[in-house]
């Protein structure tokens, strides 16, 4: 949606005047009797149409994995999630936190590969 379409009738975004040529002399002509400041347009007209704020979080720190290499942390969270699913069932909401953890830690390629390995029965980890 264009900003001009959201403005009340008779209002413009331009501030000040523009030149209109008549013969050899330039005359100053006002565009409208009521002007909107750019700050007003942004705060009152554009901000309400912004997308909602989404807070992104990663897995909390785990004392078992103190180093910066998070490979084992990723793998452990993946295994914890699938153990939780096996114990509590597919529809359990309690396992969602483990899913968020491993999805934020693990690269997508690894997850795809592990899912394929689980389907084929060749997954190397203990589930």
From TrEMBL:
CDD domains: Cyt_c_Oxidase_VIb. Signal peptide: none annotated. Transmembrane segments: none annotated. It comes from the Eukaryota. It is found in: Mitochondrion. Pfam families: COX6B (PF02297). Keywords: Disulfide bond, Mitochondrion. This is Cytochrome c oxidase subunit. It comes from Hibiscus sabdariffa (roselle).
């Amino acid at each position: 949606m264009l900003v001009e379409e959201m403005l009340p009738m008779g209002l413009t975004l331009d501030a000040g005047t523009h030149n209109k040529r008549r013969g050899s002399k330039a005359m100053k002509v006002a565009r409208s009797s009521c002007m909107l400041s750019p700050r007003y347009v942004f705060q009152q007209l554009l901000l309400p149409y912004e997308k909602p704020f989404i807070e992104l979080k990663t897995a909390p720190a785990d004392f078992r994995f103190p180093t910066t290499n998070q490979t084992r942390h990723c793998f452990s969270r993946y295994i914890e999630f699938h153990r939780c699913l096996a114990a509590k069932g597919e529809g359990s909401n309690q396992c969602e936190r483990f899913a968020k953890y491993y999805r934020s830690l693990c690269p997508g390629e690894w997850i795809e590969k592990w899912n394929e390995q689980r389907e084929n029965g060749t997954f190397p980890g203990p589930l």
